[in-house]
Design goal:
The protein has 344 residues and is an alpha/beta fold. It is built from 10 helices and 14 strands. Helix 3 links the parallel strand 5 and strand 6. The longest helix is centred in the C-terminal third of the chain and has 20 residues. It is found in: Endoplasmic reticulum lumen.
Length: 344
């Protein structure tokens, strides 16, 4: 079997190995490196003034910096509570830092790492935070690394709103009570996942491969009574750029099959929560059959003849069977009939 071709999106669960060469590109995505042999580590933190690191055997607390980065990536625990704040503002940083330490101590028996992240080191997290996240600091995010980066966000606005906590003066995020209740609400199952989505496209273009946004995934893919092929991509991915025209050609070839729909979705701006979708590399292509949306079929994007392979794949894996020749004949007849009406 030929090895899969494409740019791997490394999972944090695997050690975040930044070894793809282009550092600025890699830092926008999680790294892939299955490090199942990692041993359990003591939590390591740095005091609020940036002093020497200290070992804690029970409180799972870190400050993210070059000396602790690798240890955090390799830790056996893959649920993280990240608090982003500006270390350049000493009093501001110290309050956030101490509030996170408090939450780590309260919830020290839970399998969750608490990581204070100075905004100067925010770049490795941008792939799931969106554009310019430092402008929202301070804010907290709980991330389930091994669950498709499912995340729950606490910002000043949500904290003031009372769904988590009434700030009671000072910064509503960086208070002991806010972070403690935020984390408790997470473990009690009371938080709603934070999902990013672009605004719907006003112009979807004339091709059969249509753009899709995260907010419409449920309605247009899962609830659709059709077979739906979805191409997950990243705009900076060279292989995606080479693959898309061929996948678009495949979509155009089947544009007259009414039971088939083709979409593309930018994973750097849209989140999808589905048990059958774990985007660990791009391109990532799945067919969601009409009668079994829970079990998407794997489309092997590395095949050299995307159109030939794809045509055979669709005929075998689509739940709603189709005859491409008859679909094209029906479309041609309909088109000719429309032209005749116009002439009359």
């Amino acid at each position: 079997m030929k090895p899969s071709v494409g740019l791997r999106i490394p999972q944090w669960a695997a050690g975040w190995a930044f070894n793809l060469g282009l550092l600025l590109v890699v830092l926008t995505l999680p790294a892939l490196c299955d490090d199942s042999s990692s041993s359990e580590l003591h939590s390591i933190g740095t005091d609020a003034s940036g002093g020497k690191a200290s070992l804690r055997s029970s409180v799972k607390f870190y400050e993210w910096n070059p000396s602790t980065e690798d240890m955090i990536k390799r830790h056996r625990i893959k649920t993280l509570m990240l608090l982003f704040a500006d270390k350049g503002q000493a009093s501001h940083w110290e309050g956030c830092y101490q509030a996170l330490q408090h939450a780590a101590n309260i919830h020290k028996k839970r399998d969750i790492l608490h990581v204070a992240v100075p905004v100067e080191f925010i770049q490795p997290f941008q792939f799931f935070l969106g554009d310019d996240p430092e402008n929202d600091a301070p804010f907290a995010v709980i991330v389930e690394v091994n669950n498709g980066f499912k995340k729950y966000r606490l910002t000043a606005d949500s904290a003031k709103g009372g769904s988590i906590i009434s700030g009671g003066g000072g910064n509503p995020v960086c208070s002991n009570k806010a972070l403690e209740r935020y984390e408790k609400s997470y473990f009690d199952g009371k938080l709603t996942p934070w999902l990013r989505s672009e605004e719907p496209y006003e112009d979807e273009g004339g091709g059969a491969l249509k753009p899709l946004v995260g907010a419409h995934f449920e309605q247009k893919v899962i609830k659709a009574k059709k077979d739906v092929a979805v191409f997950f991509y990243a705009p900076w991915c060279g292989h995606c750029k080479r693959f898309e025209p061929r996948f678009s050609e495949l979509a155009d070839k089947h544009r007259n099959v009414e039971s088939l729909i083709f979409y593309k979705i930018d994973i750097t701006k849209n989140d999808v929560v589905h048990k059958g979708v774990k985007v660990d590399r791009v391109p990532y292509v799945r067919l969601f059959p009409a009668n079994d949306k829970d079990t998407p079929r794997v489309f092997e994007h590395s095949r050299p003849d995307v159109v030939g392979y794809g045509s055979d794949f669709l005929s075998k894996n689509a739940d709603i069977k189709f005859d491409l020749a008859k679909a094209n004949e029906a479309a041609a007849a309909k088109h000719n009939g429309s032209e005749l009406l116009i002439e009359l």
